[in-house]
Amino acid sequence: MTQPDLARYSSLLDTEDQLDADLKKLKLEKDVLAKAIMDWMSEATVQNVTVGGRTLYVRSQLFVSIKAGMKPQAIRALRALGLKEFVTPQLVLPSVKAWIKERMEQGQEIPSRLTKYLKIVEQPQLGASKSGKEAAPKQSVDLTEHSDQSPANSEET
């Protein structure tokens, strides 16, 4: 048996380590920029922006979980609210999340007897899609030819 290329393998490991470190830096920079873009879009009341062949938009992500040690109380609260379908011997958290999201979208409050047992977090996220692949909201701003108006270069007036 011939000896495999040990030096090449070691070089590949070094390259992989460097790429992992670069990717970590890239993700951190992307997260910081995404926050700035979402803030800008909110202030400028822009629903989406098309730039570089991508459509950027803000979407809301809802997270629902049971607070630590509160599962029995959460189950009782759901049953007391007439939401027995969300409790089949166990709690069906995706159904609870959908119910909460629907109420929030309709402007209805989530009963406090339930919220004291659940952790509910609505977190905005910057989404991106290749332009033309996903139906974009009606209001759109194309910054491809107006790079001086990009969020990174914009100033408050």
Question: Topology of this structure?
Answer:
Elements (H helix, E strand, L loop, with lengths): L5 H38 L4 E4 L2 E13 L4 H10 L12 H13 L6 H4 L2 E13 L9 E3 L15
Summarize this structure briefly.
This protein has 157 residues and is an alpha+beta fold. The chain has helices at 6-43, 71-80, 93-105, 112-115, and strands at residues 48-51, 54-66, 118-130, 140-142. It has a four-stranded mixed sheet.
Helix and strand composition category: alpha+beta
Strand order of the largest sheet: 3-2-1-4
Work out the oligomeric state of the chains in this entry. Answer: single chain
Mean of residue pLDDT values: 83
Beta-strand level of the residues, as a percent range? 15-25%
Principal-axes shape call: flat
In which range does the helix fraction lie?
Answer: 40-55%
What is the H/E string?
Answer: HEEHHHEE
Q: How much is the radius of gyration in Å? A: 23 Å
Tally the structural domains. 2
Number of helices: 4
